[in-house]
Amino acid sequence: MDNVPRGAGVDLSAEQICLVIDYKGWSMFNAPPMKTSKETLSIFQNHYPERLGAAICYNPPTIFRAFWGMISPFIDPNTYTKINFLGPKDSNHNEVLSSLFHLDKLENALGGTSAVAFDFLEYEARMREEEKMFNPVQH
């Protein structure tokens, strides 16, 4: 295949999640509590086993290494291997991103080439429509 991202042509019945966390602006003052981080890991590991295809921690600040050191012992070894730390200056930056995404669809802020920024309201509306297909009964 000619540099086709792993997600292209995926059978959605066995879909995996590619989680991208942008740490721009992250600090110890606005970080979620340790309990929240541990609970998030627990949810992924215990309720969605093997659903995590990859996790990109993008632009992690230097101080994040200490935070990572505190939470990494709680991560399942298989999950741990799927977590990538990546910044725009890393030598493997384009290689890692292009193995997961079509860079022209990934916004600039996350290392892609798309000038279109993520629009939460548009995403929310699209997800609500998609949810109706799977759960036609409205609550």
From TrEMBL:
Pfam families associated with the record: CRAL_TRIO
InterPro entries for the chain: CRAL-TRIO_dom, CRAL-TRIO_dom_sf, PI_Transfer_CRAL-TRIO
Domain CRAL-TRIO: 1-118
Highest taxon in the source lineage: Eukaryota
Any one Gene Ontology molecular-function term assigned to this protein's record: phosphatidylinositol transfer activity
Name of the protein in its database record: CRAL-TRIO domain-containing protein
Organism: Cymbomonas tetramitiformis
